[in-house]
Every structure is written in structure tokens, then in C-alpha cells.
Amino acid sequence: MDRQTWNDRYAAAELVWTAEPNRTFAAEVAALGPGRALDLGAGEGRNAIWLAQQGWTVTAVDFSDVALAKARQLAEASDAEVDTLVADVTTFVPPAGTYDLVAVAYLHLPASERTQVHRRAAEALAPGGTLVVLGHDTTNLAEGHGGPQDAAVLFTPDDVVSDLEPTGLTIAKAERVHRTVATPDGDRTAIDALVTARR
Q1: HSE-up of 174 (CA within 13 Å, CB side)?
Q2: Domains of the chain
Q3: Which 3-state string (H, E, C) describes the chain?
Q4: What is the pTM (predicted TM-score) of this model?
Q5: How far apart are CA 51 and CA 38, in angstroms?
Q6: Average pLDDT, the chain
Q7: Which pLDDT does position 12 carry in this prediction?
Q8: Are 131 and 170 contacting, i.e. CB atoms less than 8 angstroms apart?
């Protein structure tokens, strides 16, 4: 979807997603000591705000100015400080060797664009830094709940590992994660792809 479509989607609801951080993401980074963090495709900022509350210095990047305006409002209401940057992550080049944590959560792109985003995210890591990539797994389309219904923008843990192969990162985790989603018809299971890697 293009910027205007996302702006319209974010403008149409108080929150498109919850204000709480993604549970899987929070569990993956909870043990890390705070430093500088970059959230690529941050949307309304739920993960970025949570990171700031944990002591991280956070930059949230998204091409939707409507989403980032909501992120700033949520951050202020939460007494958290988050820097926001309106930019298209498919062309945005973060400063190399800068961040202790780079998050790419539920950013669903065609494979060629996804690969470039993941490689630039890896280059942005400082020595010892951690990259967390999390999104709807390819198997979620037929076996899970929610998420994009276009197989071309879904990915597997192996896809992400392949994206990162030239970057020299050490893969710490590459697995599918089952996540419970509450719906009006009862709980459903979503299947996510999770990769963590370190510089």
C-alpha cells in the first residue's frame, strides 16, 4: 500500500493496533541493556514507546506522517521520548554502525525491497548490536490468522537469514512463533517469523 492509503487507514481509527508492545518483540529485547534503538516501519509507535520506557534512546521511522503524529501523542501521554522521522524505509539509509538495536516488525514488502531494508538495517548496527526482524510467516496465509493476504510480501525465517547472509551478522535465533490473537469468534493463532542477529 502507498503512503496515502496508510495515512487514510491510520486516520480512520483511534489506534489501528494496540498501544501495547508486541509481546514477542518485548520478550526478545527485554534482557538487552538500553542504548540507541531504531524502529523501521514503526507505525503508531507501540514498540518504540515501550523501548523508550525501558530507557532506550529511540528513533521511529515510518512513511506515514499520520501514524507518527499518533506515535508522538502516545509517547507524550506515556511520558516517553521518541524521535520520529517521516521516511520511506525502502529508500531510507540509516547511519552505519550507530544503533545498539534495530527493529523491523511487521514490515511486509516484496522480496527485493525486503532484502535491501534488512541489509541496511544490519549495516546500521553498532558493534555488539542486535537486529530483530518479526513478521507474519508465509505459512500464516493458509494456516494462521490475520496478516497480509498476499504471499508475495510474507516471509520465512530462512528468507531473513538469506537476506542477512552477506552482512556478517551472527544469527542468534531463526524460528516460527505461534501467537494467540483474541477475536470476536474466540482465540485464533497467528504464525510469525522471528529472526534475531548480532553484529
Answers
A1: 16
A2: 3-198 (3.40.50.150)
A3: CCHHHHHHHHHCCCCCCCCCCCHHHHHHHCCCCCCEEEEECCCCCHHHHHHHHCCCEEEEEECCHHHHHHHHHHHHHCCCCEEEEECCCCCCCCCCCCEEEEEEECCCCCHHHHHHHHHHHHHCEEEEEEEEEEEEECCHHHHCCCCCCCHHHCECHHHHHHHHHHHCCEEEEEEEEEEEEEECCEEEEEEEEEEEEEC
A4: 0.92
A5: 10
A6: 92
A7: 57
A8: no
